[in-house]
Amino acid sequence: MAKKLVIKVTAGADSPERCSQAFTVAAVAVASGVEVSLWLTGESAWFALPGRAAEFELPHAAPLPDLVESVLAGGRITLCTQCAARRDITEKDVIEGVRIAGAQVFVQESLADDTQALVY
User: Tell me: the pLDDT tens digits for 49-91?
Assistant: First the structure.
């Protein structure tokens, strides 16, 4: 089993089930002791902003703010550089603990030894 998990979530409110699945898998992995790096890209980029996860609703799914909190407590959340720029999001705008980084960091993390990458 991989000791590290890199998850890229490309969906937001535009595809709520896919979005929720990514955050749920990330939170469960953190709770299981796996090193997790969750990447916010595309429409999920908005969830790097304070309060935006609270606006997300999906019946029979864990609340997105709780999942974000769980991932931040034991893992890492990264907002894609280009996705942030396209939405005029800067480092001063994001939730504490969220970093902004680019594709080369994603590739480096994804190709590290004992790492599994998933894209939602």
Answer: 999 999 999 999 999 999 999 999 999 999 999 999 999 999 9
CA distances from 103 to 54, 74, 82, 99 (A): 28, 23, 9, 13
- H-run or E-run covering 39: strand 35-40
Which of 35, 77, 83 minimizes the C-alpha distance to 53?
A: 77
Helix (H, G, I), strand (E, B) or coil at 77: strand
The structure's pTM equals: 0.95
Query: Which tokens is 83 given?
Result: 């996705």
Task: Point out which residues pair with 7 in neighbouring strands.
Answer: 38, 118
Residue 75 makes CB contacts below 8 A (sequence gap 6+) with 26, 29, 30, 35, 36, 37, 38
